[in-house]
Amino acid sequence: MKKFVVIGLGKFGASVSASLFELGCEVLAIDRNKDKVELIMDRVTQAVRLDATDEVAVKQLDLSGFDGAVVAMGENIAGSIFVTLLMKEIGLPMIVAKASNNLQAKVLSKVGADRVVFPEKDMGTRIAKSLVFPGILDYLDLSPEYMIIGVRATKDMDGKSLADMDFRNRYGVNVLLVRKGEEINATPRGSDIINAGDFMIIIGKRKQIETFRKEMEE
Length: 218
Description:
Elements lengths: L2 E5 L3 H12 L3 E6 L2 H7 L5 E4 L5 H5 L8 E4 L5 H14 L4 E4 L3 H9 L4 E3 L1 H14 L3 E6 L4 E7 L7 E2 H4 L1 H5 L2 E7 L2 E3 L7 E2 L4 E7 H12 L1
C-alpha cells in the first residue's frame, strides 16, 4: 500500500486526500485549521492538526517511509516553499506542489518539487477542451508530444473488433484500456468487440490524436 502525506486541506488538498484514500492509499492529511482537519477525518487514514512550517513538529511525524507528499498550500507562498524544502530534506521520493502563478512554480521546482500543478488553470483548460472537443471525455498530457484521451465508442464502432477498426495503422494511436459498464479490460486485444458507449483510453501523438478525434466527430 502506497503512503502519501497531503499538507494543506483547502478544496484541492482535501480532494486529493480523499481521492488517494479511495484508491487504496494510506493518507496522512495535515492542516493547522481545526475545522478542515475534522471535515477530512473520516475520509483519510489519519488527519492531524499541525502547522507544517514547524520543522520540529513535522519531523516528529516520521515521514521517512512515505512514497510522496502533496504540498497544497498555494496561497501561502512562503509556507509552500518552506514545506517543499522540508519534504525534500526528509527524503520523500516524490513531491507535488500546488502553485498559484508561474513565478511560484519556478521557485517550487528549484527548491525540490518534482511536479508543480495549477489546479484552477488545469480545470479551466479541461472544461474548455471538453466544450471544443465534445467527443473527448478527459485527457492527460504526458509530454509536449504525447497525450492520453478518454472517449466513448460511437455508433459507427458498434459491433466491430479493434482489429477491424485498426486504430494503430489508420491513426497511429493505441487503445490502452476498454471499459464496458463496470467491467474493465486492461489488456485489450484485436479480437475484442467494441460496442457503442464503451469507454476507451487511447494514447498517441497530439497530431494523431487530433486526426482520430476529427474522424470520430464526422
